Amino acid sequence: MAKKSTSVKKKVVKIEAVGQAHVHSSFNNIIISLTNNSGQVISWSSAGKMGFRGSKKNTPYAAQQAATDCGKVAHDLGLRKVKVFVKGPGNGRESAIRAINSCGIDISEIVDVTPLPHNGCRPPKRRRV
């Protein structure tokens, strides 16, 4: 007998006018998430989702395209003002912030939350040739 397919209810996210934008920019990709103040994701996008492959994913143009895609969806749902949290050393950080601003979403604050080690891990041994 075939399994009965159970429908999974989509989580209802409360969308307010004020929220947060999380920009995670690594050396290989850039991921933009627009959330409400409690951290529930309203819309997200990445350079890989937009169709960029390989080394093209970590370009400012790819970050701009991903942020524009994410910002339009959130603006249509009612997000108007965000506080931006930027994490990582990648290329498209500034262009992603500019693209979010150009979608009609006001940026109130930009915070860099890149994790920095306080002399954490021991480095590898020196290379002998």
Could you explain the architecture of this structure?
With 129 residues, the chain is of the alpha/beta class. Helices cover 22% and strands 27% of the residues. The chain has 2 helices and 5 strands; from the N terminus they run βββαβαβ. The protein has helices spanning 60-77, 93-102, and strands at 18-25, 30-36, 41-46, 81-87, 106-112. The chain has a 5-stranded mixed sheet, covered by helices on one side. β4 (81-87), α2 and β5 form a beta-alpha-beta unit. α1 runs parallel beside α2 (93-102). It is globular, with a radius of gyration of 18 Å.
Q: Classify the helix fraction into a percent range.
A: 10-25%
**How are strands sequenced across the largest beta sheet?**
3-2-1-4-5
State mean pLDDT (0 to 100 scale).
91
Biggest sheet character: 5 strands, mixed
The fraction of residues assigned to DSSP E strands is 25-35%
Distance between the first and last residues' Cα? 66 Å
Q: How many distinct helices?
A: 2
Order of helices and strands: EEEHEHE
Radius of gyration: 18 Å
Sheet/helix structural class = alpha/beta
Please tell me what the overall shape is: globular
**Count of DSSP strands:** 5
Poorly predicted runs: none
